[in-house]
Design goal:
The structure is a single chain. The protein is mainly α. It has one domain. 71% of the residues lie in helices and 0% in strands. It contains 15 helices and no strands. It is globular and about 55 Å long. The chain starts with a helix and ends in a 5-residue tail after the last helix. The relative contact order is 0.17.
Length: 317
Amino acid sequence: METKKNMTRFLAMGLVFLMVGFVSSEAFAWGFATHAYITDHIGKTKKTQNADEIYGGVAPDTFNYLFTNPEYLGFLSDQTHSGFTKLWNASNQGLGKSLAYGFASHNEVWGADSTAHISSITLGQDKGYVIAKAEELAVILSLVLPDAGLDVPYEVTLEISHELVEDGIDILIKSLDPSIGQKLSSSALSRTSNFPVLLVKAYARDFSQFAGISYQNASKFIIAVEKEFRQRIVFYGQALTQDDDTAIKLIAEGTAEVATIFLEAYGITPPPSEVIVSLLEFGIEQSIGLCEGDFADEIAATIEFVNQNLGTNGISY
């Protein structure tokens, strides 16, 4: 029992650093487990190649956590989500190519993120799946937040809802593949050692010019950020190896501290931590209810969509 408690505390501490996405106006699209599931169903089936494809599938979000360097966040995140072919072109044969294949599958132009953010395939709405579900969740949260003493503007509630929908879908992905958390964590632990070099080859030159720093310093920065991101993915994957209730609790507890910072940044006095945790758990549970009836169809359609677009755009190996 004590071992399980210690593991829970350990994972929750890691998730504090993972879930800082709340502080950013750079919204994510599909969550990490969802990208892992999508990438697991495309490309090669050989274990080592598949693992690198999975890590590549989440790696475009490497720079989405640069809150100590917000002036760099938008540029680098845009590079990995829109300029993703730079990394594909920088990669050679071997596991680097496997990782680059997963990396390309993530993009918001014609990849997995486009069905989450831009246009859902199955909902029949001219908006992304996650966007549509976040709007539904925001309505629900707007009704309960005042009871917790929170006067939160709708646009802030919508941003929070977006994150919670991603979390909820990641929990639901476990029903499609109970091993997805372990696959995600293992992919980060075993990812090919030359991936930071590929990131440098693809993005350091343009980043150094944008930031007004040397190529050497730009390269060091990119390598250091990827190292931290890799650790986040390990933490997140391990959280998802727990049962659903524990995983939801870990995510909520890990997010509570950051949610407090997020609210304060908007001039909103946050309630006690235990209230925030309860609200976050409620939001994740509600997002699960909103998505459980149709998420699997959207994910299956996204897999087919991404597979087709990878081939059409010459991304194969």
